[in-house]
Amino acid sequence: MGVGAGEYRVGSDTGRLVVRTYRQGVASKAGHDLVIEATEWEGRVTVPADACEQPSVSVRVNLRGLTVVEGTGGIRPLNAGDKHQIQQTMREALQVDRHPQATFTSTAAGVQGDSATVEGELTLAGQMHPLRLRVRRQDDATVAGATSVVQSQWGIKPYSGLFGALKLRDAVDVEFTVALPAR
């Protein structure tokens, strides 16, 4: 991917990690598609000097630091009280009191030009399952990537309101952009 060999520390001070949720159901017009930012996360990216070795990634996210930053759609704009209520509901669904962190640890990586596929294990809500990240180089020191997390695979029940007429789509999108600082 053109990123120099070495070990890079990444986190909320070097990048952005967001979750995008989407509404569905017959009352979807009443709800909001959300952008939720992880404000407390850290990790390490290792790029080996030997091209025969694989890069590795490990990331830890403090789920208590998830913050609703934007809500689009809906009958009315989100206010501070709405955002607070959504964050409380989200913490309950993620079982943050019992499992305050989510972690990702890579197990394999395939690099092709300016993009890569990183396979790994995501631990969320006390369960570990495989996850694949799609990563691409934006410039000499910045990478961006995305994945989709199907909540029910980790035992998380997607939000449902208005007697089931408003639902959160089971799959949420996770996106990140990271500047790999000089070592």
UniProtKB/TrEMBL annotation:
Q: Which residues belong to any copy of the Lipid/polyisoprenoid-binding YceI-like domain? A: 7-181
Please give the SMART domains that the UniProt record associates with this protein.
YceI
Which Pfam families is this protein grouped with?
YceI
Q: Which SUPFAM superfamilies match?
A: YceI-like (SSF101874)
**InterPro entries, per the entry:** Lipid/polyisoprenoid-bd_YceI, TTHA0802/YceI-like_sf
Q: Which family does it belong to?
A: Belongs to the UPF0312 family.
* Protein name as it appears in the record: YceI family protein
Organism in which the protein naturally occurs:
Actinacidiphila oryziradicis
What lineage does the source organism belong to? Bacteria, Bacillati, Actinomycetota, Actinomycetes, Kitasatosporales
